[in-house]
Amino acid sequence: MRRESGISRDSDNLLLTDFYQLAMFQAYVEQGLTDTASFELFVRKLPPGRNFLVAAGLEQAVEFLEGAHFDKEGLDWLGECDGLSNTALKALEEFRFTGDVDAVPEGTVFFAHEPILRVTARLPEAQLVESRLINLLHLQTVVASKAARLVLAARHRPLIDFGLRRAHGAEAGMLAARASRVAGFSGTATALAGMRFGIPVVGTMAHSFIQAHGDEMEAFRNFAHSRPHNLVLLLDTYDTEAAARKAVVLARCMAGEGIRLDGVRLDSGDLDALSRRVRYILDEGGLTDTRIVASGGLDEAAVADLVDGGAPIDSFGIGTSLTTSSDAPALDCAYKLVEYAGLPRRKRSAGKATWPGRKQIFRRYDVDNLIKADCLSTAGSDEQGRRLLVPVMRAGRRICQLPELDAIRTYAGEELASLPEPQHHLMPCDPFEVDIDPSLDRLAEEADRLIDRMETGLDP
């Protein structure tokens, strides 16, 4: 039974693609270029400031492939606006993905040049799904990688996704909530993500709630009576320290009604200084168990500074910097043909050359279970180490149930714990070098000879 992906009704509509995919599809079909092809999705180089990436989005990618289709409206539009041939339109109408998929599990730590997904199918099929697959895997991998850095910075303090309002659209906001959960976030403020993905939902109040009342104490009291469970009050609408004292008075009054003040939130100002002052006021008032939540333009550097500086903050709400991955919003990722009709293929462009053939990542660990080395080799190699790419789909159908989100979150935590010491820190370090097996050098030479023969008109 398919789980709902939590994304839009157009998520598996194949018209959601770059138009050149359709143009190539027509040419492939009409010219009989329909042998089996393999494409691999990888990142050429890590963005500045990133020592590793976290793979995410596989569940949505698989759901897309399972349901990928053209509807009548789309086919009619194609026939009218561009005049695709009847042969191509018929093939598009009948399109169903029937290929194989191998991928690294969601939550896996990976590095440059390592394929995180391989599609093997008839060439027109494998080509046509490219744009949407990149779209789905790129977004969640970007956000999960950002979220993982925040998790490392917070050092086990809970993190909440506050980023929907600044996300680049509804789907992006939903999938960002999911990706942050993959990387270890504790919850989200996005209600629909809570329903679709089973993520714990967290919410406090806005400054407007305070401003709508005659005075701050009245606002606190009304909110407490309306939301007596997991009560968190926002303190910095007017005077933060004065609001903290009002919160103490309210908590004492409400104790007889069985209402407990679970937390207070700080959303602006000098969070280090204010959290220390508010902590003193709360403790002096007997509210030693009341948590302090901080939010307001935070990124991993700010979180690390607060944690390392000993600020008495118990959890963090992260918004814009998370859902937009503001310092590294895009990856130099590609989905490239590596094999066609049983022969290796590769791109030789300067600065964008690719390794040919179906590949496997072999990961080896040291005695402390830290990543010691990754070796990129051919898929049929018998190298030592854990094989990161695993079978996911065969003949268009998933061959196993993908893990639930919380299981992925646990696995991602283990992956982060396995990072070598330099990559584990926020500061940039020398790139993790992935070993290239000599078999790939030999295969590249074979592919180059094949290209040269074809270019000179000789029989390959």
UniProtKB/TrEMBL annotation:
- This protein's pathway: Cofactor biosynthesis; NAD(+) biosynthesis; nicotinate D-ribonucleotide from nicotinate: step 1/1
Q: Extract the Pfam families matched here.
A: NAPRTase, NAPRTase_C, NAPRTase_N
Q: What class of enzyme is it?
A: ligase
Q: Which domain of life does the UniProt lineage start with?
A: Bacteria
Q: Keywords on this record?
A: Glycosyltransferase, Ligase, Phosphoprotein, Pyridine nucleotide biosynthesis, Transferase
Q: Which GO terms describe its cellular component?
A: cytosol
Limits of the Nicotinate phosphoribosyltransferase C-terminal domain:
385-442
Q: Does the keyword Glycosyltransferase apply?
A: yes
**Name recorded for this polypeptide:** Nicotinate phosphoribosyltransferase
Species per Swiss-Prot/TrEMBL record: Skermanella aerolata
Gene Ontology terms: biological process: NAD+ biosynthetic process via the salvage pathway
Keyword Transferase part of the UniProt annotation? yes
Q: Which InterPro entries does this chain map to?
A: Aldolase_TIM, N/Namide_PRibTrfase, NAPRTase_C, NAPRTase_N, Nic_PRibTrfase-Fam, Nic_PRibTrfase_pncB, Nicotinate_pribotase-like_C
Any idea where the Nicotinate/nicotinamide phosphoribosyltransferase domain is? Answer: 159-337
* Entry function: Catalyzes the first step in the biosynthesis of NAD from nicotinic acid, the ATP-dependent synthesis of beta-nicotinate D-ribonucleotide from nicotinate and 5-phospho-D-ribose 1-phosphate.
Q: Which family does it belong to?
A: Belongs to the NAPRTase family.
Q: Name one GO molecular function term.
A: nicotinamide phosphoribosyltransferase activity
PTM statement from Swiss-Prot or TrEMBL: Transiently phosphorylated on a His residue during the reaction cycle. Phosphorylation strongly increases the affinity for substrates and increases the rate of nicotinate D-ribonucleotide production. Dephosphorylation regenerates the low-affinity form of the enzyme, leading to product release.
User: Which NCBIfam families does this chain map to?
Assistant: NAPRTase_put (TIGR01513), PRK09243.1-3 (NF006696), PRK12484.1 (NF009131)
**Catalysed reaction, written as an equation:** 5-phospho-alpha-D-ribose 1-diphosphate + nicotinate + ATP + H2O = nicotinate beta-D-ribonucleotide + ADP + phosphate + diphosphate
Give the signal peptide range.
none
* Annotated Nicotinate phosphoribosyltransferase N-terminal domain residues: 15-137
Query: EC annotation?
Result: 6.3.4.21
